[in-house]
Amino acid sequence: MQRILTRDRNYYRDLIRLAIPVALQNLITFLVSLADNLMVGKLGDYAVSGVYMGSQIQTLLQMLTNGIGVAVTILGAQYWGRRNTRNIRRITSIGLQFSLTVGALLTVVCALFPEQIIRIFTPDPLVIAEGTEYLRYLCISFVFFCATQVLLASMRCVETTHVGMVASAVSLVVNICLNYVLIFGKLGFPAMGVRGAAIATVLARVVETGIALYYVLRVDDKLHFRLSDILHSDAALRRDFIHYGIPVVLGDIVWSVNLMASTMILGRYGASVTTAASVTNTMNTLAYVAINGLATAVGIITGKTIGAGLTERMREYARTTQIIFLGLGLVIGALIFSFAGAFVSLYTDISAEAAAESVRFVRVLAVMLMGTCYQMPCLFGLVKSGGDVGFVFKNDTIFVFLVVLPSALIASSLGAAPWVVFACLKCDQILKCVVAFIKVNRYNWMKNLTRAGVES
């Protein structure tokens, strides 16, 4: 008889050991955004909306870079199961080359056309002015962000997850201090408003990259990575990276399109709804840090286990994962629904209309997150990290373009309330649970992606 929960204590130990630093890193990253939102919130609805619109390109970059980082982690974790560090170094180098190229291209585009980019998301001239000012300076941080994400991904795939937490913690302190000084004009500096928030983010990213580089090059004793490794590559591994990485990156592009389209749809309702979307996105990110940390830990465990050829043990882990995250989703959803009003009250300077809309949005989000908490660890932590990366891309594409965006556009055109449109934009989080349950329990996603080669 199959056990519902595994008795292997290593699974629970590794889940907690790997998840906590990743979750804390994500939490700290969230706190940077929250600090920006709360401090910029003192400048009013247009400033909050402008920063939200300006950060959409950062979100696009984050999705693209995350896709590259996930490709590094998926392949690297499986090689880590075989203790093949040479190939992990090569995979990291390939990831850096792709990521830095993407960051440089987006920096150039945003530096040259910031206003035109913001106009894509909103017609409001006051929001456009604030968003343009923010994006013009924020884009300087893109290359640093790209380098950091791949370096930290290389550490995660060898089960070193505390580096990102430390780098993000220092970055948070730098960002908050500089926000206070530059946004409001303290210590003799002029009050720069949203421009000050962008400059603070740039400097914080530079510090974060410096810490990641120092650890990877000078402290790490697993990969022994050197700057010269960036110039080295491997044709076979590059083909593998492209083959398995393209569905991951394309999946993140699909989600970037989804997020930007969602912003455009909600942006047509005006500044109060855009502000509500910004506030709700902050709560969504807060919940996401916990879910993503655990899902990332599941992904590392999955890659290592399959790379080592332990498929029967992986079946046990998969059943346990489903039970844990189903229960966790119910708890997270109930808590967010209960404290929606208290959370929105933190934004003391937004309008009463925006606050009321925010409460409705957050309560819709609470219901949807119950599904997110189950399907995300299943589809990312098990299916994608287990080697079936193409399935998740196809599944996301179908839901975004055939369910999410069409339903939201129809609801919007029929004059539905903003919270109804928002529910349409999030409905896939519940619907995907059915797909995740069927796919995971067929166990046809377990695929060893490693190549034979030097095991050191």
From TrEMBL:
<dbReference type="GO" id="GO:0006811">
    <property type="term" value="P:monoatomic ion transport"/>
</dbReference>
<feature type="transmembrane region" description="Helical">
    <location>
        <begin position="364"/>
        <end position="386"/>
    </location>
</feature>
<keyword id="KW-1003">Cell membrane</keyword>
<dbReference type="InterPro" id="IPR048279">
    <property type="entry name" value="MdtK-like"/>
</dbReference>
<feature type="transmembrane region" description="Helical">
    <location>
        <begin position="286"/>
        <end position="311"/>
    </location>
</feature>
<keyword id="KW-0813">Transport</keyword>
<feature type="transmembrane region" description="Helical">
    <location>
        <begin position="93"/>
        <end position="114"/>
    </location>
</feature>
<feature type="transmembrane region" description="Helical">
    <location>
        <begin position="398"/>
        <end position="422"/>
    </location>
</feature>
<dbReference type="GO" id="GO:0005886">
    <property type="term" value="C:plasma membrane"/>
</dbReference>
<dbReference type="Pfam" id="PF01554">
    <property type="entry name" value="MatE"/>
</dbReference>
<comment type="function">
    <text>Multidrug efflux pump.</text>
</comment>
<feature type="transmembrane region" description="Helical">
    <location>
        <begin position="197"/>
        <end position="217"/>
    </location>
</feature>
<feature type="transmembrane region" description="Helical">
    <location>
        <begin position="241"/>
        <end position="266"/>
    </location>
</feature>
<keyword id="KW-0406">Ion transport</keyword>
<dbReference type="InterPro" id="IPR002528">
    <property type="entry name" value="MATE_fam"/>
</dbReference>
<dbReference type="GO" id="GO:0042910">
    <property type="term" value="F:xenobiotic transmembrane transporter activity"/>
</dbReference>
<feature type="transmembrane region" description="Helical">
    <location>
        <begin position="134"/>
        <end position="153"/>
    </location>
</feature>
<feature type="transmembrane region" description="Helical">
    <location>
        <begin position="323"/>
        <end position="344"/>
    </location>
</feature>
<keyword id="KW-1133">Transmembrane helix</keyword>
<keyword id="KW-0812">Transmembrane</keyword>
<feature type="transmembrane region" description="Helical">
    <location>
        <begin position="60"/>
        <end position="81"/>
    </location>
</feature>
<comment type="similarity">
    <text>Belongs to the multi antimicrobial extrusion (MATE) (TC 2.A.66.1) family.</text>
</comment>
<dbReference type="InterPro" id="IPR050222">
    <property type="entry name" value="MATE_MdtK"/>
</dbReference>
<protein>
    <recommendedName>
        <fullName>Probable multidrug resistance protein NorM</fullName>
    </recommendedName>
</protein>
<keyword id="KW-0050">Antiport</keyword>
<feature type="transmembrane region" description="Helical">
    <location>
        <begin position="20"/>
        <end position="40"/>
    </location>
</feature>
<feature type="transmembrane region" description="Helical">
    <location>
        <begin position="165"/>
        <end position="185"/>
    </location>
</feature>
<dbReference type="GO" id="GO:0015297">
    <property type="term" value="F:antiporter activity"/>
</dbReference>
<keyword id="KW-0472">Membrane</keyword>
